[in-house]
Amino acid sequence: MATLAQWVEGARPRTLPTAVSPVIAGTGAAIGYGVVNPGHAVLALLVAVALVVGVNYANDYSDGIRGTDDERVGPLRLVGSRLAAPTTVRLAAFVCFAVAGLAGLTLVSLSAQWWLIAVGAVCVAGAWFYTGGPRPYGYAGFGELAVFVFFGPVAVLGTVVTQSGPPGPLAVVTSIAIGMLTCAVLVANNLRDIPTDEAVGKRTLAVLLGDRDTRRLYVALVVAPFAFSLLAGLRSWPMLLGLLAIPLAAIPARTVLGGATGRELIAVLARTSLLLLAWSVLTGVGLAVGRFV
After folding, report:
1. HEC secondary structure over 52-77
2. What's the confidence (pLDDT) of residue 72?
3. DSSP-assigned states of every residue in 186-253
4. What does the alpha-carbon distance between residue 186 and residue 184 come to, in Å, rounded to a whole number?
5. pLDDT of 73 higher than 70
6. Helix/strand/coil for 114
7. Which bin fits 2, alpha (ψ -120 to 50), beta or left (φ > 0)?
8. Cα 32-275-36 angle, rounded to 5 deg
9. What does each C-alpha distance from 288 to 25, 87, 228, 270, 291 come to in angstroms?
10. What does the pLDDT look like over 138-178, one tens digit per residue?
């Protein structure tokens, strides 16, 4: 039976910046537009965190019953390690999805953005069918696209819409950059798992591209957001604050280009998550103070 500490590790807390970052940036944009609602921001954060934990448990369950995690280099998996029953891990995923759904419905009712119910339903379905179901799209190379959409434009702009209404160009640019950095987190994960994923027939984008091109993709994804910072800075100079995160991109990019493999890439994943969080906080500040300069 898994301990509480193992359940926490199975939730993969290192991935939580992918949930927190879009809400921080979206709230910064709402402040910049002069209308912000802290209660709505907290609900958006609850939705995002519950979805991320839920998808992590769902992946643990689905990969575990397929045998994908039987030989794993990365963080602990509850089902693959035989620490928890598959049905229990699946239940944990569904509980998280239910929490996300209830928080989302509350947020929709308070903001009167009823069309977001459909968006939320798609998000939950995307979380489950990433590795679940008879034909998981994460096994066909579409995981990065889904992560970009759900944790970039959907999460950032959804946070803005539920607080201050239609987003402006700077929020849109920010959402694209956050989607790219979130993709970089997944790419680092899948780069590490290329050998084991190939062995079990899991055709992630990293498997399809191969080792060399996956490394190039990773670097492009962590560098491009700084170009967006420069571009947005032409319209509002506080957006240049995002450039302060450049030092955090240097080490993981150098490690990936240097040919790191296996456990060496676990640190890259953690550093990429930190880069995502730092860039989002700095850019969120830039969005918030932009209206005052």
Report:
1. HHHHHHHHHHHHHHHCCCCCCCCCCC
2. 57
3. HHHHHHHTHHHHHHHT---HHHHH-HHHHHHHHHHHHHHHHHHHHHHHTT-GGGGGGGGGHHHHHHHH
4. 5
5. no
6. coil
7. beta
8. 20
9. 9, 44, 17, 27, 7
10. 889 999 999 999 999 999 999 999 998 899 999 999 999 99
pLDDT, tens digit, 9 for 90 and up, residues 168-219:
999 999 999 999 999 999 999 999 989 888 888 889 999 999 999 999 999 9
H helix count then E strand count, the chain: 13, 0
Taking only the tens place, the pLDDT of each residue in 130-141 is 988 888 998 899
Instruction: Kindly list the structural domains of the chain, giving each domain's residue range(s) and its CATH number in brackets, ordered by start.
Output: 9-286 (1.10.600)
- Residue 155 tokens read as 């999460």
Phi, psi (rounded to 5 degrees) for 3: -80, 170
Rounded CA-CA distance 240/284 in Å is 11
CB atoms within 10 A of CB 207: 20
Q: How many CB atoms lie within 10 A of CB 172?
A: 16
